[in-house]
Amino acid sequence: MSSYVLDASALLALLQGEPGHERVLDVLQDSVVGAVNLSEVIGKLTDAGVPAAVSREALDGLALEILPFDADLAWRAGHLRSETRSLGLSLGDRACLALAKQQDAVALTADRAWSTLRIGVSVELIRS
């Protein structure tokens, strides 16, 4: 099992060289990403005008293990809604947190609001 689950914000920071990308690079070999969060990243890159072939090459080049969003994760993410509603967390956010909890891994994110969560998931911010 991997030690880290990458949130879309962390993966985008890495791909775009944003602050905190160094931390993501440090743990990349010990990380996974969920299919929902991968889809978020692809969508953001598409919105930014990055051609599909370029996005695919960049993401495939990271050689990240991509884990599916299955029924177990759907239940876990769904149950996180009430605990995260006040922070406005999206389905993608909850999918990442649910995967981190399932994998007993650290959720790596740029989303500061996650640091206030008390849901039994370890969260690490990529930038302070």
CATH level-two architecture: 3-Layer(aba) Sandwich
Strand arrangement, major sheet: 3-2-1-4-5
**How many strand elements?**
5
Which stretches are low in confidence, meaning pLDDT under 50 for 5 or more residues running?
none
Provide the structure class. alpha/beta
Question: Could you spell the SSE succession in H and E letters?
Answer: EHHEHHEHHEE
CATH topology annotation: Rossmann fold
Q: What is the radius of gyration?
A: 14 Å
Strand and helix layout:
Elements lengths: L3 E3 L1 H9 L4 H7 L3 E4 H13 L4 H10 L3 E3 L3 H14 L6 H13 L2 E4 L12 E4 L3
Parallel strand pairs: 1-2, 1-4, 2-3, 4-5
Description:
With 128 residues, the chain is an alpha/beta fold. It has one domain: Rossmann fold (3-Layer(aba) Sandwich), CATH 3.40.50. The chain contains six helices and five strands, in the order βααβααβααββ. It has helices at 8-16, 21-27, 35-47, 52-61, 71-84, 91-103, and strands at residues 4-6, 31-34, 65-67, 106-109, 122-125. Strands 3-2-1-4-5 form a five-stranded parallel sheet. The longest helix has 14 residues, at 71-84. It starts with a strand and ends with a strand. The relative contact order is 0.22.
